[in-house]
């Protein structure tokens, strides 16, 4: 544990990684998506969907924490299974392949990251100035969505810094603070109805994407700063659930920006207010409109909480992820 790190952060990281080990035993070669708040039972995916990289990232973080060869091998095997997404038509390849490989230290994962980066660069549309959202999950493909920005920017930057900067700038100029998605059509860009303007992860994803390049649009950076420690899943529904996953994303972004005091306040609220003794971060909201996993343990929420705790305890450099 680094000097000055609070004991609660180290203990919470131990609890979260103990839960990761239990999850790994439960899901085997499948990928966890979200777990029931009462039973703790995971809903899983064979290929990982858009969240697979976060599970691989958690396994790499466990390997770094334990130093055990078996944990490193398990993380490498999980990352290799993300190869099925390299050619998929989706901007979430940034989330999948950046966060699935950023903490890896093996040649196989590095090769996968390079393949994925070049595939994403091939999908870059210079006319629109971005990698489109894509049609892999259905719906129109010429869409700009905030969750297609984090991960994609550092992934593209490994092969083409100008494409990475353009992808970020275009999304920031379109989405601003509260318009998470736009569709391109004959008349140009039109704002989409979903996700809604008050979507919790809208600001969080953009803040994370901007954290490595805060000079790109500094006025947007200030506007994206959180106004509460754990946001509502939908700001327009004050009686609705919270979204701890958005808070965890924000905490890591704040650490990357050097705003440690703000980040620590968020992390402390998550640990003391929403982390079960079994290492489960509860009160995450997957999809409020669809009623899917609205108060659940979410694999990406766990990843960002674990990464934030790893940074404040000295296990991880914020610039590594």
Automatic annotation (TrEMBL):
GO terms for biological process: carbohydrate metabolic process. This is Sugar ABC transporter permease. InterPro entries: 6-hairpin_glycosidase_sf (IPR008928), 6hp_glycosidase-like_sf (IPR012341). It comes from the Bacteria. It comes from Streptomyces purpureus.
């Amino acid at each position: 544990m680094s000097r000055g790190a609070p004991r609660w952060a180290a203990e919470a990281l131990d609890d979260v990684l103990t839960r990761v080990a239990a999850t790994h035993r439960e899901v085997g070669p499948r990928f966890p998506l979200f777990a029931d708040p009462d039973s703790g039972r995971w809903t899983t995916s064979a290929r990982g969907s858009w969240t697979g990289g976060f599970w691989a990232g958690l396994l790499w973080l466990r390997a770094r924490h334990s130093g055990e060869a078996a944990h490193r091998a398990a993380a490498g095997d999980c990352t290799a299974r993300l190869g099925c997404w390299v050619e998929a038509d989706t901007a979430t390849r940034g989330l999948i392949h950046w966060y699935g490989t950023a903490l890896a230290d093996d040649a196989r994962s590095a090769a996968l990251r390079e393949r994925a980066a070049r595939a994403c660069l091939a999908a870059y549309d210079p006319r629109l100035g971005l990698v489109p959202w894509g049609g892999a999950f259905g719906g129109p493909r010429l869409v700009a969505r905030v969750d297609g920005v984090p991960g994609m920017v550092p992934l593209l930057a490994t092969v083409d810094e100008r494409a990475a900067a353009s992808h970020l700038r275009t999304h920031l100029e379109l989405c601003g603070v509260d318009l998470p998605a736009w569709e391109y059509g004959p008349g140009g860009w039109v704002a989409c109805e979903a996700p809604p303007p008050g979507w919790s992860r809208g600001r969080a994803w953009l803040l994370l994407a901007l954290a490595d390049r805060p000079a790109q649009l500094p006025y947007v950076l200030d506007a994206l700063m959180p106004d509460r420690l754990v946001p509502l899943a939908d700001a327009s529904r004050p009686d609705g659930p919270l979204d701890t996953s958005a808070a965890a994303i924000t905490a890591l972004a704040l650490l990357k920006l050097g705003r440690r005091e703000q980040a620590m306040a968020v992390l402390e609220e998550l640990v003391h207010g929403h982390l079960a003794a079994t290492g489960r971060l509860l009160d995450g909201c997957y999809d409020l409109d669809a009623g899917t996993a609205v108060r659940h343990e979410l694999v990406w929420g766990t990843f960002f909480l674990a990464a934030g705790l790893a940074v404040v305890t000295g296990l991880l450099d914020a610039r590594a992820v």
